[in-house]
User: Fold these one by one.
Assistant:
Number 1:
Amino acid sequence: MVLPKKFYDRDAALVAEELLGCIIVKRDDELLKGMIVETEAYYGLSDPASRARNKSIGEIMGGEAGRAFIYMVHGNWLFNITTMKKGVQAGVLIRAVEPIKGMEIMRKRRGRENIRELTSGPGKFTQAFGIDSRHNGLRIYRREEIYIEGRKEKNFQVERSYRIGVSRDMDIPLRFYIKGNRFVSFPKNVKKSG
DNA sequence: CGCCAGATTGACT
DNA sequence: GTCAATCTGGCGG
């Protein structure tokens, strides 16, 4: 089942946590699939690490729930989904997935053979899935080019940490990941809040 | 227009 | 473990 718009129309941290174990699908030359294993929640102007200050990003973030927004950092595209209703800026970053289907295309795009190197980071995942700024604003609650299916597996534990790589974080941990999964980008919580 | 930070990655010691 | 390359948007001159 494709996750409906109302799934995303809730608090970003809750959506981030519940996206773990869900299946992200991209319609490409072949169908690409991966299980989401790591996410982070972001808010609006009250969040020092948020990209809501960027005009076009802030506009999408403040729009309806369930839209894609893509942003480049250090030469990498990062894939996010808006949460909360229109007028409230919030979103979830997909940081890592476990490859399920279409690994040969992913290998080709990544230029790597090792499966562990295909999608174990936010920039790696977008490169493997062929996601870039063209997908900005895409509705992911419809069965279009990119969409997310509900959890199939529930046998995992969720761990929580502060967000990775941000210079100034908030007071609560907003990163969620599946405990023990080998595609999580930083298995050991190296970085933490400032 | 130049400069620079940044939700990163990969090559290297 | 360290460190430089990466590209776009924001800001100062």
Number 2:
Amino acid sequence: MATIEDVAKLAGLSRTTVSRVINDQPYVTDEKKQRILEAMDELGYVPNSSARRLRNQRTDTIAVLLPRITNPFFANLIESMEKKASHWGYQIIVCQTHDSKKKEMDYLQLLKTKQVDGIVMTSLCNDWKAVEPYLDSGPIVLCNEYMEEMSVPMVHMDHRRAAYESTIHLIDQGCQNLSYVCGGSDTYLAQERKAGFLRALEERSLPFLEEAMMDWAIHVQDGREVFQRIQQEFPYVDGVFTGSDEVAAGVVYEAVKSGVGVPDDLAVVGFDNQMLSLLMVPALTTIEQPVEKMADRTIEVLVKQLMYPTSVKARRYIYSHKLLVRDSTLKEQLIHT
Amino acid sequence: MATIEDVAKLAGLSRTTVSRVINDQPYVTDEKKQRILEAMDELGYVPNSSARRLRNQRTDTIAVLLPRITNPFFANLIESMEKKASHWGYQIIVCQTHDSKKKEMDYLQLLKTKQVDGIVMTSLCNDWKAVEPYLDSGPIVLCNEYMEEMSVPMVHMDHRRAAYESTIHLIDQGCQNLSYVCGGSDTYLAQERKAGFLRALEERSLPFLEEAMMDWAIHVQDGREVFQRIQQEFPYVDGVFTGSDEVAAGVVYEAVKSGVGVPDDLAVVGFDNQMLSLLMVPALTTIEQPVEKMADRTIEVLVKQLMYPTSVKARRYIYSHKLLVRDSTLKEQLIHT
DNA sequence: TTGTAGGCGTTATCAC
DNA sequence: GTGATAACGCCTACAA
């Protein structure tokens, strides 16, 4: 492969001058510039990325950590982040943690090994104490996931409030025995949602059915199993809060198949407002997240930190959700009242 | 950040010896090895990725080009490829072309700039003539998308046959007026599907309704519009072939909403066997692709080329599909015959 | 306006 | 077994 040296030789000039042309710097005669451009063209010269990175001590790359890209919520997040990042001249690399603490740590190493300039974490498996040291190697911004501690910027919704509203809605529809279904209860975000759920119950003086709580549901398949459990073990449950549209869809699918009426016998709420939630029959009541806005803000905050490393204001950007009421919770008797 | 030099100094040894330890090479006393490990630990040393890449002339990174990660088919492909690649010590970077020729070319540049060692293309917007020169800079493997030319390895299904079978199935169900719906007809893969569709028509002596063909449908929303068009402009259409489950879902959703019976008034087939196709009411007849197998093979072929650069056998790996017949095409009268 | 030279952090080669 | 040294390709003081 041709190097800057080759171009210089062919153009009969020095590496410096060639470098100036590459980087659009002044102090090069138009004539020589032309000669150099021709030489570059002739040799098919392209600057070597590794050399540049080493020399410049920057990669113009951002790593985004997420559980799995097959989850449409995160896919959408990436979609928007990439758009915004490329606009600033940054590249994004997608890092799937699969909810593994080890993988999360491995990916954080990218910051230390200088493979990326900064990191966005959209989920958090490890204790923050384990992550914090990496801040020495570069900026980290939290998006979606959050926590109480305030050592980095955070961009997120108020999940506690969202869960609270969903739950109140279920109760308003006449549900008395609610099952709480989520995917892993170890994250702060999950705790927040649960807190919102519990607060709604408390406010309406309803008991928390601990036995009917399931914290291992992520996929559609899990949702189907959730329904089976409910039908067999907790037949008195008449409403389900779920942490994702996929899980809600699984519950609804299986319920309908079993002849259990949704929402009359069992009301179900999802989360994220995926396309799926609209297409289901009955359509799913769900929480809409301002994905694009959060993604944009996240990248903006991170890039600013990259550009002005001193401006590390670890502030919080909170975005608001929207409860979308659809057929999976709209009980008939109430429609006519 | 600490460098190898710092570690060497602290351990009272040379860079060379430290390097040996880093790379697990022989000829280092256990005692000195220990000293070095301690020094690395104390300094929090991590080898600089850019320097390594420059020195080794390899990045251990593969770029995967795809239209958009929000398409679950490609998300699944990435999921599997990543697993396989990390198994071989390779990292994957996801490159969304959004069907743009320019972006596709930009991403191919990653090969020239040595940001990646090899490339997987799962779609192809540009003429192959435009892509071919990049082979000088490193190996390229096609996965999913394919073509007649044989200058690179290709891993794919027989889309012509898949479309043919879908179409024959529609006809067998009694459909006489078929609408052909796809997303962009400029790729070879799209042409193959259309050829399969046409062949089925021909074989069964049915006319091709050119007016009822729509080649701009990618998303659910497009599918909804497709149905509106059919209802308003081509009410005689009684069967639809679509290029994706998303589009099929949109068609079915809108049809059901409009009181048009699926499949009796309008039969619909999708493509890809996404979760969505199972959850729809009625469930969608679709084509299952062996995503994981194709992904694994693709990475395997590419990595082998990276390891043994001479072994550039540009052979073709063809995988077989499966037509999954579900309610969106199973007409009632036929169930009872 | 142009060129010279040193170094970014690593590893391979060769000598000891 | 260990260490000095020369690249890898690029950029940037500094000198001319």
